[in-house]
Amino acid sequence: MISIISEWMQIFDDAPVRVFTKGDILFRRDDPVRSMYLVSTGAVALERPLTDGGHLTLHVAGAGAALAEASLFAETYHCDAVARSNASVAVLSRSNFAAELRQWPDAAMSMIETHARAVQAQRARIEILRLRRVSDRLDAWLDFHGEPPKGEWIIVADQIGVSPPALYRELARRRL
């Protein structure tokens, strides 16, 4: 049986897949919303250009993640989508995607569940980032997620907003 969390992704099963190379633009801020996206391989970032020439990364979608799905309810995109690596992306027209959700209530509910979990995780991350000490951030992250698989501590460093050396010093102190 298919997990309810991923059931909505089946909407993209017959969608054409486009291939992007690192640095390619999928869409730009203020472009009209015409398509919905599901990243099949690689990574695509949602970025907002800053006045100083830099970019604020709002989200990085990896394999199996929707991209700019909140745009379903917007007239234009609010940021740029840039391939962070070579990527394959399933592309479905906005109207077809919306029609599928209307016709398939279980898919709509699974999409709502997926996004509710993402909101919960983002709220937890915001609270973790508000903590001052590395030890407090790590405690909060571990309380929420549990210990990561071997070799993935560097991902934890990024998620709690500390440098890998700072995290490794804290882990050495704890002997984890």
Q: Kindly give the count of domains.
A: 2
Output the CATH homologous superfamily of the largest domain.
Jelly Rolls
Which stretches are poorly predicted, pLDDT < 50 over at least 5 residues? 1-5
3D shape: globular
Overall description:
This protein is of the alpha+beta class and 176 residues long. It has two domains: 7-104, Jelly Rolls (Sandwich); 131-174. The protein has five helices and eight strands. The strands form two sheets. Strands 1-8-3-6 form a four-stranded antiparallel β-sheet. A four-stranded antiparallel β-sheet has the order 2-7-4-5, with no helix packed on it. The protein is globular and about 55 Å long. The model is unreliable at 1-5 (pLDDT under 50).
What key attributes describe this structure?
176 residues; alpha+beta; Jelly Rolls; 2 domains; four-stranded antiparallel beta sheet; 8 strands; globular; disordered N terminus; RmlC-like_jellyroll; cNMP-bd_dom; kinase activity; kinase
Entry summary:
By secondary structure, this protein is an alpha+beta fold. The protein contains 5 helices and 8 strands; from the N terminus they run ββββββββααααα.
Helix/strand layout:
Layout: E1 17-20, E2 25-27, E3 35-41, E4 44-49, E5 55-61, E6 66-67, E7 80-83, E8 87-93, H1 94-103, H2 105-130, H3 134-145, H4 153-160, H5 164-174
Antiparallel strand pairs: 1-8, 2-7, 3-6, 3-8, 4-5, 4-7
